[in-house]
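input
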Amino acid sequence: MYNRIAVIGDEDLILPLRVLGFRIYSPGSLEEARETFKSLGKEDIALCFLHQKYFEPLKKEREALRDKFFPVVAGFSDFREITDYLADTMKELAVKATGSDSLVKGKGKP
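output
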């Protein structure tokens, strides 16, 4: 019976979901994500949330599961993309205004 929910993404983002009973997977590379995703077709997963950074690269694997009723695969994003977008926008504005991005460089960034 299909009764589980899986989440594939960055560990720091999805680890708290384990408390809710979700199966979480934190692949270290795209290849590891590919293998993890392929293995879900053999498990009792009803729904799989797939982080946006894996959604497009695993398109072929998602298409292969389309013939099956389960798992249903849904993509999700997180706050970090928006934060990066805002930082890039501020950097562009700083360069236009001052000719330099030194005002908006983050810690540890060259």
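quick obs: The two ends are 52 Å apart (CA to CA).
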